[in-house]
Design brief:
The chain is an alpha/beta fold and 495 residues long. The protein is 29% helix and 15% strand.
C-alpha cells in the first residue's frame, strides 16, 4: 500500500502515519523513531523562526511537531492527534507563520478556529511572540464578550492571520466585515472540544465560505465521531499523524484521592496551596467558585476566580496575574478545563468531582504538560467514594483512596511529592444485607485497614500510565488497529 517508509525521530515514541479519505479503511504505518535529535531546521523551519523559538526557550520539536511540520510546510492537509500539552499550537503555528503572505484588508490569508475565548487569546499570544521583529504579519483574535465594533475596525485595517471562535466569526461574516475567499491556510484546533460544545455545524458553515484551494490542518486529542464528517467533506487526501499516549519517563502526573469532610474542603485547599507555587482548583458552579474564593481570601490566600460570569477583560487580567505568579490560587469552573496552557502549574485540585471521565482528564491535563511534572488531587466526600473508585478504574489510575485529616502536615508538601498518612478507604462492591441489620458493611463505607505506609509502593502517588477516555480504542502497539469495532481512522491507498 505504501511504497516508502518514513523515518523520523520523535522522542522515542511510536507514532502512526495514515492517509485519510472519508470513512474508508485504514492501513496505518508506524514511523520508526530512535531519538530526539531532530531540529526545527531539519524539519524545514527557516532560521528567522528558529531564532524566535530559541528566544522563547524552545530548542527541539515535540513528537507531534516532528511528525507534522515537514508535510504541513509542503501544503498537505494534516490531521494531528496528540494529547493535551503536546505542542499542537507550534505544530500548526510554525507552518502558518512561514507560509502566510500579507493579506488585503478584510480578507485574511490564514484562519485558526478555536473553541474558547481563552484559547483564542493564548494562540494569538504564542504566534505574535514568534513574529516580533519578523516579516510584519498582523495577527488578531476574535471572540465574543468584547465589543464587535473594535474587531470590525481591526479587520478594515488588515489582519493577515485570524484566530477566532466560530460564533464570533460567523457574526462577522454575516455583517460583511470579513471575507474568507482568499484564505490559503485553515486550522481547526481542539476539534474534539468543538464537537463536544456543538460547534461543528458552525465550523462547516465557515469552511463552506473558504477558498477551495486552501490547506486545512486539524488538530485534536481525538479524531472520531462527528469529526469524521468534517474530514471527509472538507479535507483533501489528508495525512493523519498520531502520537499514542505512552508512559513517558519524563512526564509525571501524580494522582491523590483524598476522602474528606465536606466542611474541611476549603481549609484543605489553603493547606495544599501553601506548598504549591500555583494551584488551579476546579468547582462545579459559578456560585461555588465565588464562595470558595471568598473563603480562601478570608484565610489569607491570594485567590482569584475564573468563570463564565466574569467579563472577558477581567478574565484576561486574572489569567495574566496567575500565569505571572501574582496570584497563587485560581478557582475555576470547567470553562478553564480545556485550552489553557500555563507553564509551571504544579497542582490541580478537583474540589468538586467532575461529571465524567472526560472532564476529569481535561481538568487534570492542565498540569504535567510539555514534559513537566504535576500533581492532581481529587477531594472525595463520603457519598462519592464509589464514583471516585469508578474514575480510577476506568482511567487506569492506581493507588488508594485515603481518608485525610486537616492536621496532617504532609498536606503542605503534596505539590512536591509528599503523601499524607491517611487511612486507606476501601471501595466495597458487596450488596447490602437484605435483613437491614448490621451484617454487611454498606457500599461506600470507610474501610478499617489501618494506615498506609508513606512510601508504600503504588498506594497514593502513581505516575499516569493509562489515561484514555474509556473507549477502548488503541493506536500504536503491534496491531495498529482498535478493538475490531469501528475503524480507527480513514485510510486511502497511496500518497
Amino acid at each position: 500500500m505504501f511504497d516508502d517508509t518514513i523515518d523520523t525521530e520523535a522522542n522515542d515514541v511510536q507514532p502512526i502515519l495514515t492517509v485519510i479519505d472519508g470513512a474508508a479503511d485504514m492501513e496505518p504505518m508506524e514511523l520508526e523513531t530512535t531519538s530526539s535529535s531532530l531540529s526545527f531546521s531539519d524539519l524545514g523551519i527557516n532560521q528567522e523562526l528558529v531564532r524566535a523559538l530559541k528566544r522563547m526557550g524552545v530548542e527541539s520539536p515535540t513528537p507531534i511537531q516532528a511528525l507534522t511540520l515537514t508535510d504541513a510546510l509542503a501544503g498537505r492537509d494534516i490531521c494531528g492527534k496528540a494529547s493535551t500539552g503536546s505542542g499542537k499550537t507550534l505544530a500548526f503555528g510554525l507552518p502558518l507563520l512561514q507560509n502566510t503572505k500579507k493579506a488585503r484588508p478584510g480578507r485574511p490569508a490564514a484562519l485558526v478556529l478555536v473553541p474558547t475565548r481563552e484559547l483564542a487569546v493564548q494562540v494569538r499570544e504564542v504566534l505574535s511572540k514568534l513574529v516580533m521583529g519578523g516579516k510584519g504579519l498582523w495577527i488578531e483574535s476574535f471572540y465574543g464578550g468584547v465589543p464587535i465594533d473594535r474587531q470590525m475596525r481591526s479587520l478594515r485595517k488588515g489582519v493577515d492571520i485570524v484566530v477566532a471562535t466560530p460564533g464570533r466569526l460567523i457574526d462577522l461574516l454575516n455583517r460583511g466585515s470579513i471575507s474568507l475567499g482568499e484564505l490559503r491556510q485553515v486550522v481547526i484546533d481542539e476539534a474534539d472540544l468543538m464537537a463536544d460544545m456543538g460547534f461543528l455545524p458552525s465550523v462547516e458553515e465557515i469552511l463552506s465560505h473558504a477558498s477551495p484551494e486552501h490547506q486545512t490542518m486539524l488538530f485534536s486529542a481525538t479524531l472520531d465521531g462527528d469529526i469524521d464528517r468534517v474530514v471527509s467533506r472538507y479535507m483533501k487526501d489528508p495525512l493523519a499523524f498520531e502520537v499514542p499516549k505512552v508512559d513517558q519517563a519524563d512526564v509525571t502526573m501524580t494522582h491523590h484521592f483524598y476522602v474528606v469532610d465536606g466542611r474541611d474542603k476549603a481549609a484543605m485547599i489553603e493547606a495544599m496551596s501553601a506548598g504549591s507555587e500555583r494551584t488551579l482548583v476546579f468547582v462545579r458552579t459559578r456560585d461555588g467558585a465565588e464562595r470558595l474564593t471568598y473563603e480562601l481570601e478570608d484565610m489569607g490566600v491570594d485567590a482569584e476566580m475564573l468563570t463564565g460570569g466574569v467579563k472577558q477583560g477581567a478574565r484576561e487580567r486574572v489569567l495574566r496575574k496567575f500565569s505571572a505568579g501574582r496570584v497563587s490560587v485560581l478557582v475555576a469552573t470547567d470553562v478553564a478545563a480545556r485550552g489553557l496552557d500555563i507553564s509551571g502549574l504544579d497542582l490541580v485540585v478537583h474540589y468538586d468531582m467532575p461529571d465524567d471521565n472526560k472532564s476529569f482528564v481535561h481538568r487534570s491535563g492542565r498540569t504535567a504538560r510539555a514534559g513537566e511534572a504535576g500533581v492532581v488531587v481529587t477531594l472525595v466526600q463520603r457519598n462519592q467514594i464509589r464514583s471516585a473508585g469508578r474514575i480510577k478504574k476506568d482511567l487506569g489510575i492506581e493507588g488508594d483512596l485515603l481518608k485525610v485529616s486537616l492536621e496532617d502536615p504532609a498536606l503542605r508538601g503534596v505539590a512536591v511529592g509528599e503523601r499524607p498518612r491517611g487511612e486507606v478507604v476501601e471501595v466495597f462492591s458487596a450488596p447490602r444485607s437484605s435483613s437491614g441489620g448490621g451484617g454487611a458493611r454498606r457500599s461506600g463505607g470507610f474501610g478499617r485497614s489501618g494506615y498506609a505506609p508513606r512510601d508504600g509502593g503504588s498506594s497514593g502517588s502513581t505516575r499516569r500510565s493509562s489515561y484514555g477516555s474509556g473507549s477502548g480504542r488503541s493506536y500504536g502497539g503491534d496491531s495498529g488497529r482498535g478493538d475490531g469495532g469501528r475503524r480507527e481512522s480513514y485510510g486511502r491507498r497511496g500518497r
